[in-house]
Amino acid sequence: KPSSKQMNEKHIELHRTPLKTITSKFHIFGDNIDTDAIIPGEFCYLPTEKELGEKAFYHFRPSFYEETSKSNRTIITANHGWGTGSSREEAVKALKGAGIQAIIAKSINYIHWRNLINGAVPNIIIEDSKFYEIINSNRDEIISINFNEGKLLIPSAQYSLSFTPYEGIIRGIYEANGIVRVFLQANTLTFHALTA
């Protein structure tokens, strides 16, 4: 919580952790994967990310949690319409609780995209057909994503792609590990903390 001096000066330094490079195998999903598939409504009452994660894709892909934890598949790849459906924040908590570190999709529902940012789950929009050809031809490829430099690599396929790194407020939210942690540190100075 900000001190009275910080409140008066409207200045606070957030505790930030630089974005890391994620290197992992991946899951493949198709079009229009909605938040009801990610975490069924019957489990939204669960209080922790871990418990929600254990129920992620419970009806849609029952092996998801085990595959993620035991096979180092911590990146999700999907086609169009990832995260459609309800705006439930539990969908992002379930992904984090299952161990997912990044989402790659051809398009992401706007509200879910905002929830991914607020929950500090990095995501990239990729429409390049070559990328999807590579991952669909070999589901054991390794993807490496450098979020600081905005570079994605699939070394064995000699594939690389550049994207715009996170900047400004969005980067601040990610580096603080989510909007809730920003607010816990900055309280009413949240906007000032993210734009300093």
Notes on the structure:
The chain has 196 residues and is α/β, with parallel strands linked by helices. The protein contains ten helices and seven strands. Strands 4-3-2-1-5-6-7 form a seven-stranded mixed β-sheet. The model has no long low-confidence stretch (mean pLDDT 90).
What's a quick, concise take on this entry?
37% of the residues lie in helices and 17% in strands. The chain has 196 residues and is of the alpha/beta class. A 7-stranded mixed beta sheet has the order 4-3-2-1-5-6-7.
Topology:
Blueprint: H1 4-9, E1 21-28, H2 35-38, H3 49-54, H4 64-70, E2 73-78, H5 90-98, E3 102-105, H6 110-118, E4 123-125, H7 129-137, E5 143-146, E6 151-154, E7 159-162, H8 168-175, H9 179-186, H10 190-195
Parallel strand pairs: 1-2, 2-3, 3-4
Antiparallel strand pairs: 1-5, 5-6, 6-7
What's the Cα radius of gyration?
A: 18 Å
Low-confidence stretches: none
User: Count the helices. How many?
Assistant: 10
Largest sheet: 7 strands, mixed
Describe this protein with a few key phrases:
196 residues; 7-stranded mixed sheet; globular
